[in-house]
Amino acid sequence: MTDSSNSLAARLGARWSQLKPQEQRGIQLASALAVLVILWMTSVGPNLQQWRTANAKGLALDAQLQQMQALQAQAQAIQVQPPLTYDDAALALKQATVQLLAGTAQLSINGDRATVTLQNAQPQALAQWLTQARLNARCVPIEAKLMRATAGGPTLWNGTFTLSLPAR
């Protein structure tokens, strides 16, 4: 194996010495260019692309961290609130339902469960109601069955929410 590699090197050396100086420079230039292209494709290019997108990724991660910290603060605020009585929770849930989902929801309370039946409820009103139910009435959603009411036009929701009220 050493003999064949030595003979190959000898043949290449002999062929190299037969080339004109311009041809030798052309081959050297093409080889250097090939090495630069390979170096760019394997090292510099990907790292440069990573560097270009790092700032945007960092900003997105910062925004996500701030959102998570806000949710953490909200959860901690809920944990330190004094517990509501069953009657206070039921009253707060009724008020939120009348105020935010008037005409689009019916509330029925049975024991420690509340069921809200929705008919053509607007998404923003539904989201606000759910927030109020969780924060003010301290109800925990147990089950949600929602269906989009209309395929065209504004999005409206039909369905039911089952929530758990504080124990009596």
In words, what does this structure look like?
This protein is an alpha+beta fold. It has two domains: 2-79, no CATH class; 86-164, Alpha-Beta Plaits, CATH 3.30.70. The chain has four helices and four strands. It has a four-stranded antiparallel beta sheet with strand order 1-2-4-3, with helices on one face. The longest helix has 60 residues, at 21-80. The termini are far apart.
Describe the structure in brief.
With 168 residues, the protein is of the alpha+beta class. It has 4 helices and 4 strands. Helix 3 runs antiparallel to helix 4.
Provide the fold topology.
Elements: H1 2-18, H2 21-80, H3 86-101, E1 105-110, E2 113-121, H4 123-135, E3 140-148, E4 157-164
Antiparallel strand pairs: 1-2, 2-4, 3-4
Offer a few descriptive terms.
168 residues; alpha+beta; Alpha-Beta Plaits
Number of helices: 4
Strand count, sense and barrel status of the largest sheet are:
4 strands, antiparallel
Total number of strands:
4
How is the largest sheet built, in terms of strand order? 1-2-4-3
The assigned structural class equals alpha+beta
CATH architecture of the largest domain: 2-Layer Sandwich
- Radius of gyration, Cα only, in angstroms? 35 Å
Query: Any idea of the CATH topology of the largest domain?
Result: Alpha-Beta Plaits
Report the uncertain regions: none
Q: State the CATH class of the largest domain.
A: Alpha Beta
First-last Cα distance: 90 Å
Order of helices and strands: HHHEEHEE
The fraction of residues assigned to DSSP E strands is 15-25%
Question: How many domains is the backbone divided into?
Answer: 2
Helix content: 55-70%
| Mean pLDDT figure | 89
